Amino acid sequence: MGIHEIRMPDVGEGITEAEIVEWNVAVGDLVREDDILAAVMTDKATVEIPSPVEGKVSSITGTVGEMTAVGATIITIEVAGTGNVAGDKAGSPEAPAKAPPPEPVTETVPPVVPVKKEIPPAKPARVSIPAPDVETKPPRPLGAKPLASPAVRKRARDAGVQLQYVHGTGPAGRIVHDDLDRFIAGNRSAGASAPDADNSVEEIRIIGLRRKIAERMQESKRNIPHITYVEEVDVTELESLRQHLNADAEDEKPHLTLLPLILRAMVIALKDHPIFSARFDDANDILHRYAASHIGVATQTDRGLMVPVVHHAETRDLWDLAAETKRLAEQARDGSISREDVTGSTITTSSLGALGGIVSTPVINRPEVAVIGVNKIVLRPVYREGVLVPRKIMNLSSSFDHRIVDGWDAARFVQSIRSGLEHPATLFMT
Amino acid sequence: MERLTCNTLVLGAGPGGYVAAIRAGQLGLDTIIVEAATPGGTCLNIGCIPSKALIHAAEEFEKAVAFSTESPLGISASKPKLELKKTIAWKDEIVTRLTTGVEALLKKTKVRSVSGWGRLIDGKTCLVTAADGEITISAANIVIATGSVPIEIPALPFGGRVISSTEALSLTRLPRHLAVVGAGYIGLELGTAFAKLGSKVTIVEAGDRILPHYDRELTRPVSGKLKQLGIEVLLNSTARGLSDSGNELVAVDGEGTASVLKADKILVTVGRRPNTDGWGLDQLDLSRDGRFIAIDQHCHTSMTGVFGIGDITGEPMLAHRAMAQGELVAERIAGLPVAWDKISIPAVCFTDPELVTAGLSPEAAKAAGHDIKIGKFPFQANGRAMTTGHEAGFVRVVARADNHVVLGIQAVGSNVSELSSQFGLALEMGSRLEDIAATIHAHPTRGEAVQEAALGALGHALHI
Questions:
Q1: Residues A95, A157 within the same domain
Q2: If you compute the radius of gyration of chain B from its CA atoms, what whole number of angstroms results?
Q3: CA A262 → CA A234, A268, A307, distances in Å?
Q4: CA B199 from centre of chain
Q5: How many CB contacts within 8 angstroms connect chain A with chain B?
């Protein structure tokens, strides 16, 4: 019987510590090779740690949310043969005090597996609850009459419950009185009836991506004096163009949203105002101005805000931009996005779509110097040549690093974007 | 002219109408029911009840005849005599008891009965022609329960020798030769009864079999009994009319061969149609469903405040459907959250042997896309059936193959009408085969065959 140690892997890019965001095993669990033991998060990405061996988890070091040094032992596993720990240490597997530099641990460090790769689903080692007898629970196809006794049917009607929405736990999926009770109880708690005063306070540990977001936002606001500038853009023609392109698009082309058009307008405006595609190293007072336009696109995911990056937006045509933003958004949402896709942006755009509101005060994605916020499109009466006409109006709410960008320059940059959006032909005249 | 107002007006006091009125009365609705004849409708007066009385008398007579010949039971009796007049009087007495019962129930629930011919003027008003003048009734809600009438065939208009079931149930002299046109359940029930009472019965049916709405497996024992009773069934034959003398019925078969049937009476039972005439339907803008009045799951017609129940609203034209609708409609008017959600409307033919269907037949279940299991148990293997001397028939259970939910139960056999309630209950409760199989069925009863059929579908029937 030996002990196999697993250490915090070196996830590269000179990172010295990583945060444990999830334990998939507990002490005493039996694990097989390739079972996922834990997930750790660096500044850039979440990495899962698979087990290189088969055995029993004998110790776990660190709690969820804790920052752990690269190379520190995080799990020990009792294995059948000899482990990777010297025999006399088997009784006390905790041996992290060597202050290991990243290099010497390569042997013991399991391969880094980016989440993107296909990983067999973690097999929980704990005894699973047997699946309910499926034979008694056939799926109720749409429109099929729910199975319930006349008394249950009557009670449901009296309570205003439509039985097709009630899950039946009885034989053959029959809805019994208890099912109805459960459904009614569930609905009531979600309903509008006055709830009881609830004095409980839940303690939620801010970990993982959420903590990352918190840190980044805090740093941005602490370090950057924001100046926010809001301008109104008439997107009537742009929308008409977009609808036309969508209507005429061949099947293989992606559906065009507003986003690729905004990216295109930003690319054009950046040509005249290159200072906005930049990263400001404020510790060394150096501004890195980029010839390329690597545009970050703030994306809401289940876990929180992520900013995937459209690299070299200036080299992409409209359809390419559409395809790329779609891919990035999908991968950000399903968690399969690669580290490269979330690094290196030089300017960012942020849109809440239909929830975009009238005005927002976007926070700069530090160390960039500008963020272009997109508000929602509303049909408004507008004076045109003395006549009130309905136009589709959208606001751009943009923030700039006032240390680098003066209000005047910010305004000119936004006006340049606006000009492109209001005269869509100019977006394609380069 | 007298003027009355009420909350709910029920037009027609058949089983649908009187139940609607009683329930409305129970719920405190100010209710008036309008009926030109005796309450009880077709069912109590000229349908279900009198026919069952006659069928019972015929069965008793058949037994007595059997005792006067050679009886395996060891009972002998002298040749029985029939006084049909007395039989009919006995039947009439039962009918009277029941109809006066209905009157009492209506009174008890404070429903006002208006006797006279009602005609709807619009969706809120009914004009009743009563014995002592006209009455105008205004109502917030109107329930149309005008029922159905026998279908007349042009070749044989009712009158003289040509009678409908109504007259057949009040004959005081037994026809020596009775021709029945139509081998549906009414024709077979009455034809069988008259044959047992001593008439020579011939049945003319246009289709290729009797009881065309039921599968052959179910109707086979009935065909056998018809033959045993000496009833001649002419299939694929059409009644062409009376002979020149007016004393015979002329029927033509598929090949065009005409036969002339002796007939003191010709009973036409080719079905019933909704009674849409004479009560003002043309005054209302009601959507129709074929010949019927279209209703929704609340028995509401296309006109606000106008409801329809019973035979006027569609198939199956059965009293118990009308009663269930009547109850529902009253509760609906009273504001209760009811809706039509029945799984089955069992149907019974009081033929010999009796026939019951509830839910889906094997064919209907397959047509609905179900994979099915079928369990069948013959009464030949049922102790109680043997001890009554009626072993014909079987019980058949149809269930889903995947989860064993019972989709339908059918039976043919003596007295199986009494099993229909169990069939209905099993279906409404959403029973599985296991539920029926695991329920103790008292021994010795015919009901054991139901349990055995369920066991059979599960693959382990015990007594076969």
A1: no
A2: 24
A3: 13, 10, 16
A4: 23
A5: 34
CATH number at residue B435: 3.30.390.30
- Integer Rg of chain A from CA: 28
* Contact at CB, B429 and A150, closer than 8 angstroms: yes
User: What's the CATH number where B207 sits?
Assistant: 3.50.50.60
Containing structural domain, residue B15? 2-55+84-150+273-333
Whole-angstrom distance, CA of residue B415 vs CA of residue B396: 15
A212, B55, B93 from B83: Cα distances, Å: 102, 15, 16
How buried is residue B155: exposed, middle or buried, by Cβ count under 10 Å (0-12/13-18/19+)?
middle
Tell me whether residues A147 and B341 touch, CB distance under 8 A.
no
Give yes or no for a contact between A281 and A290, defined as CB atoms under 8 angstroms apart: no
For A152, the domain range is 134-190
Nearest to A262 by CA among A329, A342, A347: A347
C-alpha atoms less than 13 angstroms from C-alpha of B15 in its C-beta half-sphere: 21
Q: What is the rounded CA–CA span in Å between residue A234 and residue B200?
A: 95
CB-CB contact of B130 with B116 (8 Å): yes
Per-residue pLDDT in tens (0 to 9) along chain A, 430 residues: 788 888 887 766 567 778 888 888 888 888 888 888 888 877 666 777 888 888 888 888 878 877 888 778 888 888 887 777 755 444 444 444 444 444 443 444 444 444 444 444 444 444 444 444 434 444 566 667 889 999 999 899 888 888 888 888 888 889 998 899 888 888 654 444 555 677 778 888 888 888 888 998 999 999 999 999 999 999 999 999 998 888 876 767 778 889 999 999 999 999 999 999 999 998 999 999 999 999 999 988 887 888 999 999 999 998 899 999 999 999 988 888 888 898 999 999 998 767 778 899 999 999 999 999 999 999 999 998 889 999 999 999 999 999 999 999 999 999 999 999 999 999 888 6
3-class DSSP state of B237: coil
CA distance A174 to B427: 12
CA distance A157 to chain B (A): 6
CA dist., res. B240 & res. B256, Å (int):
11
Q: A274 and A382, same structural domain? A: yes
Q: CB of B119 within 8 A of CB of B276? A: no
Contact B428 A150 (CB under 8 A): yes
Total domains in chain A come to 3
How many angstroms separate the most distant Cα atoms in chain B? 72
Asked about A406 being catalytic, the answer comes back as yes
Q: How far apart are CA B329 and CA B15, in angstroms?
A: 13
Tell me if B341 and A138 make a contact (CB, 8 A cut-off): no
The residue of chain B with its CA nearest to that of A156 is: B337
Residue position matching structure tokens 């009880």:
B40
- Is the confidence metric ipTM above 0.90 for this complex? no
Q: Does residue A195 lie in a domain region?
A: no
Strand partners, B357: B347, B410
Residues B198 and B282 in one domain: no
How far, in Å, CA of A217 to CA of B183, rounded? 87
Query: pTM higher than 0.90, yes or no?
Result: no
Interface test with B, best of A147, A169, A179 (most B CBs within 10 A): A147
CA distance A176 to chain B (A): 10
Q: What is the pLDDT of residue A43?
A: 65
DSSP string, A318-381: HHHHHHHHHHHHHHHHHT---SGGGS--SEEEEE-GGG--S---PPP-TTBSEEEEEEEEEEEE
Distance CA A272, CA A257 (A): 25
List the single residue in A136, A153, A170 with the smallest CB-CB distance to B341. Answer: A153
Beta strand A309-310 pairing with A295-300? antiparallel
Q: Same domain, yes or no, for B255 and B187?
A: yes
